[in-house]
Amino acid sequence: MDSSEQRLTATLLLSCADRRGLVSRIATFVFERGGNILELNEHVDSGERQFFLRIVWDMADFSIGPDDLPAAFAPMAKDLDADWKVRLNHRKQRVAIFVSNADHCLLEILWRHSLGEYNADICLVISNHESLAPLSARYNVPFHHFDMTPGNKSQQEEHELALLKREKIDTIVLARYMQVLSSRFVDSYPAGIINIHHSFLPAFAGSNPYRQAFERGVKIIGATSHYVTKDLDEGPIIQQDIVHITHRDTLGDLIRKGRDLERLVLARACRLHLEDRVLVHGRKTIVFD
User: Fold this and answer.
1) Residue stretches of the chain with pLDDT short of 50
2) 81, 121, 187, 233: the active-site residue
3) Any catalytic annotation for residue 79?
4) pLDDT tens digits for range 19-52
5) Strand 9-17 and strand 50-58: pairing?
6) Are 204 and 213 in contact (CB under 8 A)?
């Protein structure tokens, strides 16, 4: 990693009602305090008259210290009645990965993390099976097994939440975790749980999407990464992709092609989230890639 990548930067994500002069006003806040803007992306939803912004600036000569930045920007955000967050790149997000038996998505994320693609700390892997403990150990990530049954699921989720709290986890990645999270669990991490679903949502939601697609004779299949909400497979979509299918493809072919999509789509979604490139607005996202 070169010195330019290591410099201290701040990233602001903001949304509010649209009005004149918003970009100028926020850019002036940065400029007047000695910040050098590195990236600025904005979008206006003209139908809803809603404004969205992502701005990144160099903090090297910024007159406000990192710890004081949120309080310094808060009065402007209040005046704009904005939803916002600001993050410093030296404060890495702490990530937990949930898996069951399928290894392809977990392997992709751990491999990319080992290459330095994610500005994050992968702190632990949690599973309802023990089969992927060796893979987790290969990448020196602590592995925790929580056996799940209909009778103990609520209690086990409480144990998981306690562990996540102790480890100060910011983001959870469901890397083909074949359990439905309770509403209490989901409420603990709003827009903080990323799932991969093996279909091009909203088509073929729920279980066995490849079989559903095969039986329907589709000509494309897809994968969707989205934030988890209380409604199964209906959270705001972060990333999607597709691959073409022909009449020659068997159900096994669909599953094989789908695995490649799943691992790539989830990996991209993780990068976008960890780089603070995603704003959630209702059931949709604005993604500044």
Assistant:
1) 1-4
2) 233
3) no
4) 999 999 999 999 999 999 999 999 999 999 999 9
5) antiparallel
6) yes
Q: 214-227 burial by CB neighbour count: b if 16+ within 10 A, else e?
A: beeebeebbbbbbb
Token readout for 23 is: 């970009």
Render the burial of 143-163: b for 16+ CB within 10 Å, e for the rest: bbebebeeeebeebbeebbeb
Angle at which helix 22-32 crosses helix 69-80, to 10 degrees, equals 160
Sort residue 88 into left (φ over 0), alpha (ψ -120 to 50) or beta.
beta
d(CA 235, CA 237) in angstroms, rounded, equals: 6
* 39 phi, psi to nearest 5 deg: -145, 145
In this structure, the number of other CB atoms found within 10 A of the CB of residue 167 comes to 16
Distance CA 184, CA 14 (A): 27
pLDDT at 5: 54
Which pLDDT belongs to residue 205?
A: 78
Edge-to-edge strand order for the sheet containing 171-174? 143-145, 120-127, 93-99, 171-174, 193-197, 220-227, 237-244
SS3 86: strand
